[in-house]
């Protein structure tokens, strides 16, 4: 019987599923079984379990959010654009949070070593979102005194519930289904204040 062919994507998807379900201590036998291959075949593809852990739990592809932010603001409604950005950021964090939580469960020193060459996409999101806000301001569609601060405020409001739950392991209010809309509306009030009424 010919050995089963599998891609790196197949391997990391199976490993991610096992790590998230069972934790970092899950046996590579369990991962290989889920993939339908032998442990020997698995280790022909990756050098170690640590390499498998990092490859499976840190995103390799560029998140679509980064591509959208790089394009800059469009002529569409500002609130709708911000809501789309918030939704994608929330989705990215909901995937990244549990994955990094598994790695951090290994202890501070080991986690730092495992993540030594990993730059969280949230850093790039903040940089690009700052530029996005600057573009909005430059085109007269918003008033921002501190674009970097607003980008931090925006991302922090979305990120906090994921961080507290997965990185800190604490129960944290999730907000209802309109939480992201609330975040966007608060930001809109700050950057697009209603026009002042003229005195009669």
3D architecture notes:
The protein is an all-alpha fold and 200 residues long. It folds into two domains: 8-57, Homeodomain-like (Arc Repressor Mutant, subunit A); 64-191, Orthogonal Bundle (Tetracycline Repressor, domain 2), CATH 1.10.357. 66% of the residues lie in helices and 0% in strands. The protein is built from ten helices and no strands. The mean pLDDT is 86.
What layout of secondary structure does this protein have?
Layout: H1 8-22, H2 28-35, H3 39-45, H4 49-57, H5 64-71, H6 78-104, H7 108-114, H8 121-138, H9 147-167, H10 179-191
Provide key terms for this protein.
200 residues, mainly alpha, Arc Repressor Mutant, subunit A, Tetracycline Repressor, domain 2, 2 domains, 0% strand, elongated
Provide the residue-averaged pLDDT: 86
Radius of gyration: 21 Å
Number of contiguous helices: 10
Q: Quote the beta fraction.
A: under 5%
The main sheet comes to: none
Distance from N terminus to C terminus (CA atoms, Å) equals 88 Å
For the record, what CATH class of the largest domain applies?
Mainly Alpha
N-to-C order of helices and strands = HHHHHHHHHH
Query: What number of structural domains do the residues give?
Result: 2
Give the low-confidence spans. Answer: none
Percent helix, as a range, is 55-70%
Name given to the CATH architecture of the largest domain: Orthogonal Bundle
């Amino acid at each position: 019987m010919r050995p089963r062919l599998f891609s790196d994507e197949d391997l990391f998807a199976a490993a991610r599923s096992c790590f998230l379900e069972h934790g970092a201590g899950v046996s590579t036998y369990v991962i290989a079984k889920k993939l339908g291959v032998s442990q020997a075949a698995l280790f022909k593809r990756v050098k170690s379990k640590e390499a498998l852990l990092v490859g499976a739990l840190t995103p390799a592809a560029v998140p679509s959010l980064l591509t959208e932010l790089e394009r800059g603001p469009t002529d569409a409604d500002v609130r709708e654009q911000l809501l789309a950005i918030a939704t994608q950021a929330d989705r990215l964090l909901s995937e990244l949070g549990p994955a990094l939580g598994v790695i951090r469960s290994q202890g501070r020193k080991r986690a730092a070593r495992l993540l030594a060459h990993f730059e969280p996409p949230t850093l790039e999101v903040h940089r690009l979102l700052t530029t996005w806000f600057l573009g909005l301001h430059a085109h007269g569609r918003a008033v921002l005194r501190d674009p970097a601060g607003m980008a931090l405020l925006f991302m922090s409001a979305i990120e906090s519930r994921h961080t507290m739950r997965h990185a800190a392991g604490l129960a944290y209010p999730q907000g209802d289904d309109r939480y992201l809309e609330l975040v966007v509306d608060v930001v809109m009030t700050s950057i697009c204040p209603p026009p002042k009424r003229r005195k009669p």
